[in-house]
Each structure stands twice: as structure tokens, then as C-alpha cells.
Design goal:
This protein has helices at about 5-15, 25-35, 40-45, 50-60, 115-125, 160-170, 185-195, 195-205, 250-260, 300-305, 335-340, and strands at about 35-40, 65-70, 75, 90, 95-105, 130-135, 175-180, 215-220, 220-225, 235-240, 270, 280, 285-290, 310-320, 325-335. The protein is an alpha/beta fold and about 350 residues long. It has two domains: about 5-75, Winged helix-like DNA-binding domain superfamily/Winged helix DNA-binding domain (Arc Repressor Mutant, subunit A), CATH 1.10.10.10; about 90-340, Metallo-dependent phosphatases (Purple Acid Phosphatase, chain A, domain 2), CATH 3.60.21.10. It has a six-stranded mixed β-sheet, covered by helices on one side. Strands 8-7-6-5-14-15 form a six-stranded mixed β-sheet. Strands 1-3-2 form a three-stranded antiparallel β-sheet. The model is unreliable at about 10-20 (pLDDT under 50).
């Protein structure tokens, strides 16, 4: 029996029901979005028993709400905190070798989403023996005033976009995708509804039998890279920053690296968000700009942005001290759809990738 049916059954069977109990689920949720309440406060305000309140709070959690307990008070927080304490560790292979795939800004749910690109990237990763892919955020399009007319017909509503993500996101044997949640696009739902959207995606994927999608948390996640022989390590940062593109692709990530304190600098910093591709160094940090899998949309044209469509496979090696001594990035890039469907190609059919 699903959550809504259970709640409807509870309301129907509740003894001595009075009008205050009707629609209490939404009313309690709104009260928790607007402030902090104890279980006793909820009981008194809405005429519920403590057992009913605890069941309701459990239902909110199961539905993806970012329910936070502060002492004896509860609240639904619209603002998620980065989870930098998670023990994400990867032990390298022979000679400290690591191989990862990177994707970002897939924007599933947008009419401009490139299913051919994302599936092509995962086919490439599978051929190259990649077992771990990192997604740098904005996995769904989300909903805002300026993009509602550019959504896929199946992508109206938060759960509809999550379901579409689980249905369309590539699944390849032996590959696990670890993702961070962007503060924009999927993050818009968190800001408006107080939902831990990253956890909701993973829970939905599990119910659909998919265990290849793993939530790293909100905005950023540090991954420890360990040398197999010496156990010395460095860190890699998977990041979905904010802010717009600059006049030079390197400027925005470079300023973030320059602003980082010495003890928190990662060995490799992978950025999504800007829909650009690139690799360079600053302050001994290997900087990776990860492309998108979305064609230029109305917002991009309005802002005068250029989208780089594709993904990247990275080989890196650690020395025995744990530092990254060598990096080999390989970018797989696509043109826009018109090139592949003969819209403007004058040289004859293009072979399928």
C-alpha cells in the first residue's frame, strides 16, 4: 500500500475525526517548512497523537523530505549542506593507476537533452574498462519560469523528472555512477520543497532495481585516492559550482582554486556547471572542466553561451607519496544534432558513432 493510500486510510479510520485532521499531511509539512516544531507542538496544533506524528515524520523522510532534527525540534530545511565527511575512498591499481569517466550537466527532461551523446559516452566507457563514472551535477533539467516550455512532455513535476532520469540514464554492466546534486536545476526542487533530491533519486532507482546510481551529496564531494602499496593518498573533488561563464574558460575555476585554503586543495578538481571542456593546472591542482550532454537552449542563446557537448575519460597515476604525478584526459566530443541528422551536412551521410 503506497504512502498516500495509507494516509487516506488512516484519516478515514481515525476515531472522532474533526475538520482539523483533513489535509493535515500538507499542513504539517508547510508548518515544518516555515519553522521549527517539537513533536508536542505538532500534536497540539493539529490534534494528532505522538504515534501519528512519528509515523508522519517517517513518511516525509521516505518521500525524500530534508527533515532535520535539532534537539527536540524538527524542521524541513530548504538548504542542503555539502557532505564532506563521507568516507569515499578509491584504492588505485598497479603503480597507483586510476581510470575514471566524467560526465556533467546531462539535463534529462529537457528537449535539448542528447540521449545519443550520453549513451555513446557510456558505450565508450564500457569498451575502455571504466567501472566508475563521476557525474558533476545537473542530472535533470528541473523546472523554473524560464525553461517550462522547453521540457519534455514526460518531465513536468519533480517525481516525473526523477522517474524519467531512472528510465533514461544509461546502465552498463560493471559501471557505477556517483553523482553530486547541483544547487540549480535539480537543486531548485530542494530550495522550493525542502526535498533531499539526491537521496530521492537514489531511493527511486533502488525501487526500480537499479543499484548503479549512488548519491555523493549536495554540490560537492571529496574522493580519497589511495596508493595501493604505500597507502598514501590525495583527494579528488567532484564539484558543481555556481556563477556564470567568464570571458576565458579557465578564469572561474582558476579563481576557485586560488581561493582554496592550502589544506583543502584537492589533487584533481573536476568542475561541472559551465558546459565547457578543458584541462589545465593552477596551484598544483589538476583542473578538469567536464562538458555537458545538452544542445544549446534558449537560456544559453540569451546569455551568449557556448555549450561543449561530450564527456571525458581520465587516466591518472599517483606516486608513492600519494601525489598525482601524471594525468591523461581523453575528451569525446559531439557536434549538435543537425550534423548527424543531415540538417546542414553537405558531404553525404555521416556514419553512426
Amino acid at each position: 500500500m503506497n504512502r498516500r493510500r495509507k494516509l487516506a486510510k488512516f484519516i478515514a479510520e481515525a476515531p472522532n475525526e474533526d475538520p482539523r485532521r483533513r489535509n493535515y499531511e500538507q499542513r504539517v509539512r508547510q508548518a515544518l517548512l516555515n519553522g521549527k516544531l517539537t513533536a508536542a507542538d505538532i500534536c497540539e496544533r493539529f490534534g494528532l497523537t505522538n504515534k501519528e506524528v512519528q509515523a508522519l515524520l517517517a513518511d516525509y523522510l521516505a518521500a525524500g523530505a530534508n527533515l532535520v532534527q535539532l534537539g527536540s525540534h524538527y524542521t524541513i530545511d530548504r538548504h542542503l549542506a555539502p557532505d564532506n565527511d563521507a568516507a569515499w575512498k578509491v584504492v588505485g591499481g598497479k603503480d597507483g593507476h586510476h581510470r575514471f569517466g566524467f560526465v556533467a550537466d546531462t539535463h534529462i527532461g529537457s528537449k535539448h537533452y542528447r540521449d545519443d551523446v550520453l549513451n555513446g559516452l557510456y558505450d565508450w566507457f564500457a569498451r575502455e574498462g571504466v567501472t566508475t563514472v563521476y557525474h558533476c551535477g545537473n542530472w535533470i533539467e528541473g523546472e523554473a519560469r524560464f525553461n517550462k516550455h522547453e521540457l519534455d512532455d514526460r518531465a513536468h513535476g519533480m517525481q516525473a523528472q526523477i522517474d524519467l532520469m531512472v528510465e533514461l540514464y544509461p546502465q552498463r554492466k560493471g559501471i557505477t555512477t556517483y553523482y553530486v546534486t547541483g544547487d540549480d536545476h535539480e537543486g531548485w526542487y530542494s530550495q522550493r520543497e525542502g526535498v533531499d533530491i539526491g537521496r530521492l533519486l537514489m531511493d527511486t532507482a533502488r525501487r526500480a532495481g537499479r543499484r548503479d546510481l549512488v548519491n555523493l551529496g549536495y554540490k560537492e564531494a571529496f574522493i580519497t585516492l589511495e596508493h595501493p602499496k604505500t597507502k598514501r593518498h590525495t583527494r579528488m573533488l567532484i564539484d558543481h559550482p555556481g556563477g556564470g561563464s567568464s570571458y576565458a574558460y579557465s578564469y572561474a575555476p582558476q579563481k576557485r582554486v586560488e581561493a582554496a585554503q592550502g589544506g583543502e586543495k584537492p589533487g584533481l578538481w573536476a568542475f561541472g556547471h559551465w558546459h565547457k571542456h578543458g584541462y589545465f593546472m593552477a596551484r598544483n591542482v589538476h583542473i578538469l572542466l567536464v562538458p555537458c550532454t545538452k544542445d544549446l537552449d534558449t537560456f544559453g542563446r540569451k546569455k551568449g553561451l557556448e555549450y561543449h557537448v561530450g564527456g571525458v575519460l581520465v587516466d591518472l597515476w599517483q606516486d608513492e607519496g600519494g601525489a598525482i604525478k601524471r594525468v591523461v584526459p581523453q575528451f569525446e566530443l559531439w557536434l549538435d544534432r543537425g550534423y548527424y541528422n543531415q540538417q546542414y551536412n553537405l558531404s553525404g551521410p555521416v556514419a553512426k558513432r
